[in-house]
Structure formats: C-alpha cells, structure tokens
Design brief:
The structure is a single chain. The chain has 2 domains: 15-52; 58-182, Rieske [2Fe-2S] iron-sulphur domain (Rieske Iron-sulfur Protein, 3-layer Sandwich), CATH 2.102.10. By secondary structure, the chain is an alpha+beta fold. The radius of gyration is 34 Å and the shape is elongated. It contains 1 helix and 9 strands. The chain has a 4-stranded antiparallel beta sheet with strand order 2-3-4-7, with no helix packed on it. The mean pLDDT is 87. It binds FE2/S2 (inorganic) cluster (FES). Residues 115, 117-118, 120, 133, 135-136, 138, 153-154 line the site of FE2/S2 (inorganic) cluster.
Amino acid sequence: MAKPPKQQPTSLPPPKSRRSFFAVFAAIVTGAIATLTPLAAGLVTFLSPLLRKSKSPQVRIALLDQVPDDGMPRYFPVVADREDAWNRYPKQRIGAVYLSRQAGEASPIAFTAKCPHAGCQIGYTAGNDVFQCPCHTSVFNLDGTRSRGDKEVSPRDMDQLPVELREIKLADGGAVTEVWVEYIDFQTGHKEKHPTT
Ligand code: FES
C-alpha cells in the first residue's frame, strides 16, 4: 500500500513572498523619506524668520549741535527700517525720543517718549521743568524719574536709552558729531523694563 505524501510545515510564508513583502516595505519607507524631507526643509525655511530674535536698531537721531548743553529736552522722531518676520519696510517712524544735555556734558542722555504706563506719548513744553503724560497725568522730572515716585500712575521711571556719539568726516575736511541711540522698545505696564522683542 502506498504511503500518503509528507505534509510541509505551514507556519512561515514561502521565501519568495517574504522577499516581496520587504521590498514593498522598503519602497514605502524610501518614498515617505523622499516626500517628507523637502517638506520639512520648506517648513523650517518658512518658519525660521519667526524664530530669529530681532535686534534693537541703532538709529541716527540728530547732530550734537542740535542738542545744546542747556539741560532742556529736545524731541526727535526715530526713523528706521522696520522688519517683521518676512518683510522689511524702509524709513518708518518707529518712535520718538527726548535728548537733553547738561552744561559742560559732552554727550546727551536719551529717553524714549513712550510712557511706561500704557504707551502714550509723553509731552514736554519748552521751559517746563517736568515731562507730562497726557493720558493719565503721570509727571516725570527732567532726569526721567517719576515726580511722585510710586504714587504716579506710571509703574516705573521714563525708559533711558543707550547713546553713542559718532564723528563723521566731511568732504571739505571738517567733521560733525552725530548722536545715535539704541532704540529699545520696552513693554508697558510693568515695574521692570522688558524689551518687547
Ligand atoms: S499712558 Fe502715561 S500715564 Fe498712562
């Protein structure tokens, strides 16, 4: 009597079908990498301006001769190129400063005209011995301190800005001195100074 044929074990797929499974899997992974890599690179390029920390601009404000050393504050607009994450806007008015120079002082001091309370423009009338904010009546001395200290509405003194003098040689051999300010825009409403950017 003939023996029945011996049965093959069925737990593993035949070698050929395993090879094709790995080939398909590798093709899917390779395709996914090829698609996602340029997408990720594009996303990083698109978002990188948002991650960049912007610097406070150095701005030429005036000639030193425009700030006589009589202690009286002079008001100057601050004009500079402005940038957001993706665009650059040339020559925009970004704020205003007061420059004042005491008798015998070589360099003026600078205060931003933006009130630390809520951002209104602080006013100064020539000849007065104080600055005044028209919005909520904060009063500041000419050295930027609050006239009534913590009793003023403004939570801090006027914001002083770094000043630099630059000597510029002229074509005729002469020279002028320019006043440059690092225009830092500070957050309002806080006792401490925090730049907005
Ligand atoms: S904004 Fe100046 S006191 Fe309020």
